[in-house]
UniProtKB/TrEMBL annotation:
ACT domain mapped to chain residues: 354-427
Cofactor(s) of this protein: a metal cation
Amino-acid positions noted as binding L-homoserine in the UniProt annotation, renumbered to this chain: 194
Species, as recorded: Aeromicrobium piscarium
Protein name: Homoserine dehydrogenase
Domain of life: Bacteria
SUPFAM superfamilies the UniProt entry points to: ACT-like, Glyceraldehyde-3-phosphate dehydrogenase-like, C-terminal domain, NAD(P)-binding Rossmann-fold domains
Enzyme Commission number(s) from the entry: 1.1.1.3
Chemical reaction(s) catalysed: L-homoserine + NADP(+) = L-aspartate 4-semialdehyde + NADPH + H(+); L-homoserine + NAD(+) = L-aspartate 4-semialdehyde + NADH + H(+)
Length: 432
């Protein structure tokens, strides 16, 4: 247990969008944080990649170092904050921090979803905390509610908008008609996007968060490769218009479900959701996560999901918690993976679909298309024709069906002479 008379020593790894805000609060609000922790806190080092870059921070120059490994290995640290991102060197630094006796706070969802097991095992062995509230949905408290508040309940479903960048882009496309690239540039300028924004727009970031959420919700280990992933790069202005025509909006959703036989599925993809659904009104870089559980029913967590200051808020909350644990000589909850749920592929997921089919504008088309759906046991809810002649299109919305059955339907449609192409297939979520 640390000597209560000495300050708790904190090291910060990475001083980019999030790290800068964390350093600003750790230094500017040190007195208030000390009151909350119950002991003084001291930022003893900041690891950066390059020396001499001008940083808008009022901290002594000698705190900065380009030798992150030497910083974590000094052996007298209480808390190491990792906000570098990516797999390496972040993983090696976190493991070294734990081995050297520090507790760790990280915002690194990519690493947790790729190799969380190694980090948890190291934290367990070192008897230190590993906290990561900022890794999922930025400022929104969702990791703690799932791991603590709902620990006595059975969570059955988590449905969320967990990527600020893609929500910002889709929102701009549907409300101002902005182009994809302009909206992405703006999201990068505002500090929402990952260092490589492909992680956002191709759904990797949301998939990492889905893996973490599913693991926490269902007490089972879920790897990022278990998560079905589709990004938003194929979402067109026509999809956004089609959604509006059925009173819906397009959102990138992360969906984690516990099936009736105990099977777990996790998927990330764009989907249409009705305007009346609370997730439809989540704008800009905001995130929201719905949790359904047997006892509590429906819970919704909403707030800023990205950006320096909101993410720093979650990081600092964790810092205060683990610092309190250090003082008390205790640890918080570790990983709970007692359940051995089967993780099922996307083909077994069940949902509704919106399918736009380019067809010849002639008698018999409707019945041929309907037969393709019926042959795969996919029931049609509505069908309407858009355009005429060369522009004729049938737009079908289905009842709930298995993903594999829908895929087989699309293959069959593509083989029909009267079908010129299937121009869009999008899942429809949030319908009662
Ligand atoms: N920006 C956001 O809205 C959010 C970010 N996060 C996560 O927080 C972490 C940091 O994100 P950002 O601050 O946005 O990224 P960033 O790219 O702005 O900052 C990362 C910093 O780490 C530095 N760095 C790279 N290698 C280093 C090394 N070997 N030693 C020391 N510093 C090194 C880079 O130079 C950069 O300044 C990532 O894991 C990210 O996924 C989580 C939630 C929201
Ligand atoms: N790039 C991420 C940042 C937070 O996790 C996002 O856009 O949500
Ligand atoms: Na969070």
């Amino acid at each position: 247990m640390p000597d209560p008379r000495r300050p708790l020593r904190i090291a910060l790894l990475g001083c980019g969008v999030v790290g800068t805000e964390v350093a600003r609060v750790l230094t500017g609000d040190a007195d208030e944080l000390a009151q909350r922790v119950g002991a003084p806190i001291e930022l003893v080092g900041i690891a950066v990649r390059r020396e001499g870059r001008r940083r808008d921070l009022d901290v002594p120059d000698d705190l900065f170092t380009t030798d992150a490994m030497a910083l974590v290995a000094r052996g007298d640290l209480d808390v190491v904050i990792e906000v570098i991102g990516g797999i390496e060197p972040a993983r090696g630094l976190i493991l070294a921090a734990l081995e050297n006796g520090a507790s760790v706070v990280t915002a690194n969802k990519a690493l947790l979803a790729e190799d969380g097991a190694t980090l948890y095992e190291a934290a367990e062995k070192a008897e230190r905390d590993l906290y990561y509230e900022a890794a999922v949905a930025g400022a929104i408290p969702i990791v703690r509610p799932l791991s603590d508040s709902l620990a006595g309940d059975r969570v059955t479903r988590v449905l969320g908008i967990v990527n600020g960048t893609t929500n910002f882009i889709l929102d701009a496309m549907s409300t101002t008609g902005a182009g994809f690239n302009d909206a992405l540039d703006e999201a990068q300028r505002l500090g929402y996007a990952e260092a490589d924004p492909t992680a956002d727009v191709e759904g990797f970031d949301a998939a990492a968060k889905a893996a973490i959420l599913a693991g926490l919700a269902f007490h089972t280990r879920v790897h990022i490769s278990d998560v079905h992933r589709e990004g938003i790069t194929d979402v067109t202005a026509a999809d956004v218009r089609s959604a509006a025509e059925i009173g819906s909006v397009v959102k990138l959703l992360a969906i984690c479900e516990l099936g009736p036989s105990g099977e777990v599925s996790a998927r990330v993809h764009p989907a249409m959701i009705p305007d009346s659904h609370p997730l439809a009104s989540v704008r800009g870089a905001y995130n929201a996560v719905f949790v359904e559980s047997e006892g509590a029913g429906q819970l919704m967590f909403y707030g800023p999901g990205a950006g320096g200051a909101p993410t720093a808020s979650a990081v600092l909350g964790d810092v205060v918690s683990v610092a309190r644990h250090r003082l008390a000589g205790v640890r918080g909850a570790g990983e709970t993976v007692h359940a051995q749920h089967e993780i099922v592929p996307i083909g077994r997921a069940r949902t509704r679909y919106h399918v736009a089919i380019d067809v010849d504008d002639r008698p018999g088309v409707l019945s041929a298309v309907a037969q393709a759906f019926a042959a795969n046991d996919v029931s049609i809810k509505t069908v309407r024709q858009e355009g005429h002649g060369d522009d004729a299109q049938l737009v079908v919305v289905t009842h709930e069906a298995e993903d594999a059955a829908l895929s087989a339907t699309i293959d069959r449609l593509r083989d029909l002479d009267m079908v010129r192409g299937v121009s869009s297939v999008m899942r429809v979520e949030g319908v009662a």
